[in-house]
Amino acid sequence: MTKFSDLKLDPKVLSAIADAGYETPTPIQAGAIPHALEGKDVLGIAQTGTGKTASFTLPMITLLSKGRARARMPRSLVLCPTRELAAQVAENFDIYAKNTKLTKALLIGGVSFVEQDKLIDRGVDVLIATPGRLLDHFERGKLLLTGVQIMVVDEADRMLDMGFIPDIERIFQLTPFTRQTLFFSATMAPEIERITNTFLHAPARIEVARQATTSETITQKLVQITPPRRDQAAKAKRELLRALIQAEGESCTNAIIFCNRKSDVDIVAKSLKTHGFNAAPIHGDLDQSQRMKTLDSFREGGLQLLVASDVAARGLDIPAVSHVFNYDLPSHAEDYVHRIGRTGRAGRKGSAFSIATPADDKYLNAIEALVKMEIPRAETPEGFSLSEAAHREPRQYDDAKGGRSKSRNSRGGRGRGERREAPVEEKVLEVVAEAVVEAPKREERREERREDRRDDRRERGGRGRDGGGPAVVGMGDHVPDFLLRSFRTARPSTAATDSESDATTEDSSES
């Protein structure tokens, strides 16, 4: 069996690996590290949770052990799709490079440009960044990429989903042609294939698992529910989610709950907290400090349930997650693989539950076609039944407590953290009724404004038909004399022509 000591890594790196408690590399590490140390481009394809981060950080540290960084010119570049993943890569670098003098900088949003500029100005060996913030620094003239020797693209398929591919192509063009490229992805979409063909040079392809496969250490279950009312589907799913968590009991030491929309993340987290669960939300609209605080609490065991959007689905190294719950089936089938990959990591056992309604059939079919298996069906927990509230017509504003919220304004605006669950027909009727009631009022207000303007004109001496004063000509009452003076010698024929023209104009206006 291959060991890290067999991979020709720097002794200082091997010492750090031993201190971290690792002896045997994962398949992706054993396949990618030797090629990376030889200076070859690497294309790594592996499902999430297989140790891709160490596959590039370990050889990078070894290759960069010689040399020195110059101001504003990093020697290597690691691109990550999310702030959390970038921060995690930075943590891994700190662990494995602790015995070296290599420096790093982390460029992510939500952090002051000033502090990041100071790090870049001193010169860094490893620059870890999200594409948007990296280009912000470049366009401000604070960063040069002409000294990049090693470039890493992590979670490339997630970059595609988030729309970063144009930025990635631009960054590739800003780096030297002679760079070494390490490219990692869980799936190989056609667009990803095109980029690798364009920017990688004869890469060593390392594929340690079939594309878009789920780990055998994960027990998957699908619980289907048919809400009694379509407009109460969200409430029914929240009740089923709570029942599933309770049914798992002590085996559910911690869990990540995935929602498709940020608004649902907040609602589900609030609902769980209201019913006595230790839960907190994380999504892209939260401040970076709040997101990192929530993640740290979840890692350390202070938080049991992390309710997340797909910002947390990729690359986060939280090895001891016992359960994953898909409150919503993902709209992109590949996200299912990444979501449930948060559990069952490093050989541990994990459980993944997904909730589906009849409206999710197309998403379910796409997921099962991708993973080439039927997700095992499971019954609802014993004794579970929907509450009476789930059978009734929803209140106009239904929050996690089931209470009626205070409107934000007289027209019934939503309260903070609440979701409108009224049916579409009711919304249309409300809009029409409001238009009927408000139209006369708006017309009355317009007429009042017109009358105010007429009064103002009368007070200023009158204008046109409404006032008693002379009509405004050109620039008003005080037109300079030179503008009214004629510079041509009047001819009788011209005057006659003008008179005829005026007469014609008057005739046409009368007709």
From TrEMBL:
* Motif annotated as Q motif, chain positions: 2-30
Q: Where is the composition biased (Basic and acidic residues)?
A: 389-402, 415-424, 439-466
Superkingdom in the source lineage: Bacteria
The Helicase ATP-binding domain covers 33-206
Q: Where is the composition biased (Basic residues)?
A: 403-414
> Per the record, which residues fall in region Disordered?
382-424, 439-511
GO molecular function annotations of the record: helicase activity
Q: Which PANTHER family match?
A: ATP-DEPENDENT RNA HELICASE RHLE, ATP-DEPENDENT RNA HELICASE RHLE-RELATED
Q: Which family does it belong to?
A: Belongs to the DEAD box helicase family.
Name it.
DEAD/DEAH box helicase
